[in-house]
Amino acid sequence: MELARYKGVIKRYFEYLPVSEKTPIVTLLEGNTPLIFSPKLSEILGKKFRVFLKYEGLNPTGSFKDRGMTVAVSKAKEDRQVAVICASTGNTSASASAYAQRAGLKSIVLIPAGAIALGKLAQALIHGAIVIPIKGNFDTALKLVLEISSRFPVRLVNSLNPHRIEGQKTAAFEICDTLSCAPHFHFLPVGNAGNITAYWRGYKEYYHLKKTTHLPVMCGFQASGSAPIVKGHPIKNPKTLATAIRIGNPASWKKAEEARDESGGIIRAVSDKEIVSAYNFLAKQEGVFVEPASAASVAGLLKLNQEGYFKRKLRKMALSGKEINVVCTLTGHGLKDPEIAIKTVKKSKAVEADIKKIAKIAALKEA
Ligand code: F0G
């Protein structure tokens, strides 16, 4: 019975992934997310720019993690594992528990106590993961799961698991397939640095296969209170309201630097204020609701544009006259973190059920 034409990232990109006919595919039909044109951001950047938003919040568990998790959990099952484990700022735990449950595997997630967004916690709990809050931050939790997975029969599904990176590179494939080439610039948030590693790998693979004639410039953004790569040293007590990227010692630090340096790109910091401003901009101007960490990509784009980055960079790139495509990855859905959404906007108080009062608040005049 053929229920759906689209069958998830493993089926779509089978030949580029470490799978075989023997792999039991565990999928929730992740991937195939929209690349949404952003008229407002394109206008801000200028005439020849086209800015697109890769809206990864529309994956089954609401973040890009599902692309990697379908591969990691399918391989865990193929390898006859019975349990998976991860440390998480929230989204990895949500994704791991959904895919593990579907595969009939036990899932164990370690989270920094009190520091993950409500929606993500709800997801891990409802999917039946063993959720263990740790008195410590993400970096401590990651150290613990590394040791646990080396001593106990449980598969690590953080992005140190190479299957995760393999799955996540499919986002770069999709962008190239949609645009018929790679974008000129790719913007994304950086936390544990798995995703920038995965995108760069995906773009390079497509380039070597001649599916794109050029590679993008990779531009990654950390939150300024959690910016170890930018500062050049681990941060002991990382801080930011974008809890997804509150990470002081990223596992894929070196690979992120490679992506930056090989692509001629940058990794910079954006403040929480800039993140919240981009977060509101996306929701109000483009109708796209993302979680705060995701807005770091757009905050970075606006910041670099203001600093004259594109003018300087394009002079060196010999692209005069051509249309410039820019993609920002929006990594997670806004509903993941409803508390921040409600905190950052003005709300009216409860009023009496009176039409006159309502019309006044809504600035409506009778016709
Ligand atoms: N955006 C969101 C919404 C995330 O959840 C993460 C990472 C990132 C960006 C950064 O991606 O780590 O590959 O550089 N979240 C992980 C987690 C750490 O546990 O959910 P990265």
Can you walk through the features of this model?
By secondary structure, the chain is an alpha/beta fold. It is built from 16 helices and ten strands. The chain has helices spanning 9-12, 39-45, 65-78, 91-103, 118-126, 138-151, 162-168, 170-179, 194-208, 228-231, 253-263, 272-286, 292-306, 309-317, 338-343, 355-361, and strands spanning 35-37, 49-55, 83-87, 106-112, 130-134, 155-156, 185-189, 217-223, 266-270, 324-330. The strands form two sheets. Strands 1-2-10-7-8-9 form a six-stranded mixed beta sheet, with helices on both faces. Helix 9 links the parallel strand 7 (185-189) and strand 8. The longest helix is centred in the middle third of the chain and has 15 residues, at 194-208. Bound molecules: ligand F0G. The site of ligand F0G has 22 residues, from helix 4, helix 9 and helix 13.
Secondary-structure map:
Blueprint: H1 9-12, E1 35-37, H2 39-45, E2 49-55, H3 65-78, E3 83-87, H4 91-103, E4 106-112, H5 118-126, E5 130-134, H6 138-151, E6 155-156, H7 162-168, H8 170-179, E7 185-189, H9 194-208, E8 217-223, H10 228-231, H11 253-263, E9 266-270, H12 272-286, H13 292-306, H14 309-317, E10 324-330, H15 338-343, H16 355-361
Parallel strand pairs: 2-10, 3-4, 3-6, 4-5, 7-8, 7-10, 8-9
Antiparallel strand pairs: 1-2
Helix pairs in contact: 3-4, 3-7, 4-5, 7-9, 8-9, 9-11, 12-13
The chain binds ligand F0G.
